[in-house]
Amino acid sequence: MLLVGGSAAGTEMAQFYSGMGAQVTIVQRAGRLVDREDPRVGELAAQALSAAGVTVRTGVTPVSARTAGGTAVVSLDDGSQVETDVVILGAGRAPATGGFGLDTAGVTLTGRGGIAVDDRCRAGPGVWAAGDVTGISLFTHVATYQGRVVAGNILGRDRAATYEGIPRVVFADPEIAAVGLTAAQAAARGIATAAAEVSVADAADRSWTYERDPRGAVGLLADRDRGVLAGAWAVAPLASEWIHYAALAIRAQIPISVLLDQVAQYPTYTGAYLAALDQLGL
Q1: 95 occurs within a structural domain
Q2: Has residue 255 got a pLDDT over 90?
Q3: Is 0.85 surpassed by the pTM of this model?
Q4: Pick from 35, 41, 47, 128: most CB atoms within 10 A?
């Protein structure tokens, strides 16, 4: 099986099909997997997939395909070839809004074809939009949130949508979760940062009491000047659950001094945040 695309969908499917017994190769045009996140996250994701038996090829793109004796042969732009029975495209998606005559309803489309909305999710006079069609953070939980905003505004409650602290998760093994800015995004905004990374197995004391295979890492990115978290990621079991600690801290702009004073249930993975916060040195 050849999977084209190494972001969330490709990574999840590669690990799933490998676990079901398929011989899987994943190719990603970018130089790393899950390239919307910090490079370290992509590195850990590649390590996990390789350990699961997946062949990971980054920095390459399919350019042509042909059949040879009942087998598909896909040529890559580095001159190599991959023989496969099945090709799955998981290279991303974009809103499908063409052909509906939306302009006649006063609706404007963005450059990628999404429906342009204001902070109330209003797309035009008497028109609202929520979910992937807006092109804003194409996640189910964001669509649900926008739906609540739309419903509130229709009922006259004047709700505004904000997108700070939206978690991003890849349901792989171990799970990959992130929130806020990457180091590159923070640098582009001129934010002075401090970063820390800790091993979950080392930082979450006695993790063997609730996880048979404690592994992975958690990383934090802080805004030095403001003393708050700017971003966070975790590659570890159940990371999708405990990323919300950092997500709320970023959304509510909770001072790092308050986070350091928080008492975490012992022993849980959340304790790893305290070790990482200590390492920030703020």
Answers
A1: no
A2: yes
A3: yes
A4: 41
